[in-house]
Amino acid sequence: MSTQWQVAEVVGGVPENDTARTIRLRVDGLTGHLAGQHIDIRLTAEDGYSAIRSYSVASAGMDGHLEITVDELPDGEVSPYLVRDLAIGDKLEIRGPVGGWFVWRPINRNRVQLIGGGSGVVPLMSMIRAHQASSNESPFRLLYSLKSPETSLYRDELARLDRESAKLMVDYIYTRSTPEGWPVPPARLTSDAFLGRIFPPEENPDVFICGQTVFVETVADWLVMAGYPADSIKTERFGGTGGNR
Ligand SMILES: Cc1cc2nc3c(=O)[nH]c(=O)nc-3n(C[C@H](O)[C@H](O)[C@H](O)COP(=O)(O)OP(=O)(O)OC[C@H]3O[C@@H](n4cnc5c(N)ncnc54)[C@H](O)[C@@H]3O)c2cc1C
Description:
Strand content: 25-35%
Structural class: alpha/beta
Bound molecules: flavin-adenine dinucleotide
C-alpha cells in the first residue's frame, strides 16, 4: 500500500453498461491489496487546478494491475472524463490502495452478507472475486439493489457465479424496472424486502453495505433494528444524497 502519489497507466477499458466502465491500470510496485480497499485518483489541469476522487478496487488481483469501475454522474466533474475520455496509454496519478476497515480477508471464516446499491457493488465484487479465488468455503450472499437490469455492473460474471459457484448466492432488488418475468414488480425499497433476502441475524453474518450515503444509512438502520449487532455491519458511503431507493 502506498500513501504517496504515483503514476498508473491505463492498459484497458471495458464498458459495463451505458454509463459505467471498468478501467484496468498498471501500477508499478503494486504488491496487492485487500478486497474492499479503494484508491484515490488525482486529475490536474494545465492551470494547476486539481480534483481528487476515490474509486474502489474491483479486481482481486495482485499482479501489478488493478481494476476500478466508474459510474458516470451526468453533472460530475471527474466521472464523465474517466468513463468517456480516458484512453489506453493515458497516465493517472493514484494513491493507495487504502482502507483497512471495509475489507474482507480470506482468513475470516464467518458467512458474509454483501449489500450493494448501484455502483456500491464495486468493492463487494472485489470481495466476491477474492473469495472465489481462495480456499475459503464460507457462504457469501449478495443482495444487489438496482434501478433496472440495464444498470447492473458485472452482469454476466454475477449470473455465472450465481449459477456455478456453491459459495455464492446473488439476489436483486429492482426499484424502477425489472427483467421480463421477474416475480415482483419494481418498488421503492422497504425493510421487509431487504430482510427477507439476506442471512438472518441468528446466522451471525458479517455484513458489508456499500452505495450512496442515504442507501447505506437506511439499510444499516433497518438491520440494526432487526437485531443484527452494529459491530457486525461495515459500511462504505460513496457520497451523494440521492439514491436508488
Ligand atoms: C471510498 C469511496 C469509494 C468510491 N468508489 C467508487 C466506485 O467504485 N465507483 C464509482 O463510480 N464511484 C465511486 N465513488 C464515488 C466517487 O468518488 C465520486 O464521488 C463520483 O465518481 C462522482 O465524482 P464526480 O467528480 O463525477 O462528481 P462531482 O462533481 O463530485 O459531483 C456531482 C454531483 O453529484 C453528487 N454526487 C457526488 N458523488 C455522488 C455519488 N457517489 N452518487 C451520487 N451523487 C453523487 C454531488 O453531490 C454533486 O451534486 C467512491 C467514493 C468513495 C468515498
